[in-house]
Specification:
Blueprint lengths: L6 E6 L2 E6 L13 H6 L3 E6 L3 E8 L5 E8 L6 H4 L4 E2 L7 H14 L7 E9 L2 E9 L4 E3 H5 L6 H16 L2 E2 L8 E4 L4 E3 L6 E2 L6 H19 L7 H12 L1
Antiparallel strand pairs: 1-2, 2-7, 3-4, 4-5, 5-8, 6-8, 7-8, 9-11, 10-13, 11-12
Helix pairs in contact: 5-7
Length: 246
């Protein structure tokens, strides 16, 4: 059974934070800044997307290692070229960070293989806000694009990927950007889903699971056209579907 997240709150002026006190014994809002961790020599890597995702290695008060991911929320699309990282504020629970934190918490309670929420911060500025999220890092794992750029994976693993996606869908978990970059496989062949920004838990399973899967298929085809010797073909998709439908 997954241990529940013990939430605590921090509110000072225009800064609102929520964090898991089991993971963070002494919390300060600066922990949601990459500069804070760089000054402590705790940044062990990064990844580029809309912005930079920072990989953090630290310890708790008991000396236990903690490996986290720090991400700032950035807009995409055309509007992102004009308003890079500000969102209209309509209440703390409606912020991107609070919604993703809550969804990660729910998925962990359901036993789904997703990151653990650690903390989030919302900084309000007039009618708008900016936000950041800390979550656990999936250790010794690579995303499918990284894996398939190096070697092919067998049908059993493809089927397992399909089964894991189905487990999320059966619980009504909608992933807003289900693509090959957001599926991880660790050293034990455990499959994980990451990056649940704008995801949600939906009551009705109408057409969205099919649309989710169609988006994933487009992602594989896109990477197959983009990367030389990408180890993917249509029969791999059928193996994934066999797992999804089993």
């Amino acid at each position: 059974m997954v241990k529940p997240c013990l939430e605590k709150f921090f509110h000072q002026g225009h800064v609102y934070c929520r964090y898991d006190s089991d993971e963070v014994s002494t919390f300060i809002p600066e922990m949601l800044n990459s500069d804070y961790w760089q000054a402590k020599n705790s940044v062990v890597g990064s990844a580029q997307g809309r912005g930079t995702t920072w990989f953090i290695a630290t310890e708790n008060a008991m000396g236990t290692a903690r490996n986290w991911v720090l991400r700032h929320y950035y807009r995409g699309g055309l509007i992102g070229k004009v308003i890079k990282d500000q969102y209209l504020y309509t209440g703390i629970e409606n912020t991107r960070a609070a919604r993703e934190f809550a969804l990660l918490k729910s998925m962990r309670a359901l036993g789904l293989p997703a990151p653990k929420p650690i903390a989030f911060r919302v900084i309000k500025n007039g009618l708008f806000y900016r936000a950041d999220l800390l979550s656990s890092r999936v250790e010794n794992a690579s995303d499918l694009v990284g894996l398939l750029s190096k070697y092919a994976i067998n049908d059993l693993l493809w089927q397992q990927i399909g089964k894991v996606i189905k487990a999320f869908h059966q619980q009504g978990i909608y992933h807003h950007d289900l693509n090959a970059h957001n599926i991880l496989v660790d050293d034990n062949d455990q499959v994980w889903l990451i990056d649940f920004d704008q995801g949600e838990q939906r009551k009705q399973q109408t057409k969205w699971p099919e649309e989710n899967m169609a988006r994933l298929l487009r992602s594989f085809r896109k990477e197959n056209n983009r990367i030389t010797n990408f180890q993917w073909c249509e029969k791999n998709w059928q193996a994934l579907l066999n797992g999804y439908q089993s």
